[in-house]
Amino acid sequence: MDAEINNRKGISIATHVLVWVVLFSLPYILSAGTDFNFQRTLKCSTIPLVYYTIIFYSNYFLWIDRLWFKNHKAYYIGVNILMVVFFVYINFTVRHLLFDTPPVRPGKPPLRLFVYLDMISMCIPVLFSVGLKTYERWAFSEDLHRLAINEKLVSELQHLKYQLQPHFFFNSLNNIYSLIDRYPEKAKEVVHSLGKLMRYLLYETNSERVPLSKEIDFMKKYIELMQLRTSDNTIIHAAFPSPEPSVMVSPLLFISLIENAFKHGVSASQQSEITFSMVMDQRQILFTAKNIYLPKDTTDKSGSGIGLINLKKRLDLIYPGAYQMHAEIVDGMYVATLHIAYKEQI
After folding, report:
1. Domain residues for 103?
2. What pTM was estimated for this model as a whole?
3. 130 and 220 fall within a common domain
């Protein structure tokens, strides 16, 4: 945010300098190649611009913040009336002394007309300064509001990710527990594999984006871990691409669908089949998890369903309007699909 504010200040200063350089130079540029009268240009353009500059920046740096935005508008108006009257008088005096302005002759516009025109022209920088300062104040408020929203989103994403990790660890411990008595050697393998997975969760997923190749390695290891628990009745198919290192995704998007497939698609008494596939096409990723539909008994309290709820919330925050997640039962198979756009690292 500090860098953005500094950039905004630098742009604002450069814009101010450029505008005044153009305003002071324009009369001389437009007079080039014509019957140029330096004295007239100085009297009618350059010297009044000096007054406008003083009025503008005295308002911009002093009176608007101290009076206008502090609800002392009557004082603000009074101060500017005094400034306008003062510079109108100074302008008339300078013209008379330096340029020896002749008195108004019959048929010429009356002197009060010039005074009125000077007063109107002196009010223009006042209005511009108020408008510019009001816009800058609004833009700064919008920046703060946007920063607060971003910080809220980051905090919520961190909360969801921290919520996902214990959930994943809890499910894995349940798998290990089911193996300890019957297959102690398998249980040891699972613990070893779980250590590798947790290392990825703790150290590789702190970034906003991770290479898709690392995410695929993580999913493959998890599928291998789950295969150690399943019996020969379960057939698992997995097909993943070999993406370029530049393909980046948000971490841990697909693992909930894989967990869900194993939780609901494995049967100890009947043949079951689970299929995972991922395809990429034109900066799009389509992930599909398919398993036999085995609805759990109402008395089965394993799993809280937090994984898919968590996934939906994260997708809403990370890919708002840029993802599609769908689940349906087709011919006794539960099919879940997740379609997202990926990003390449530049």
Report:
1. 2-145
2. 0.53
3. no
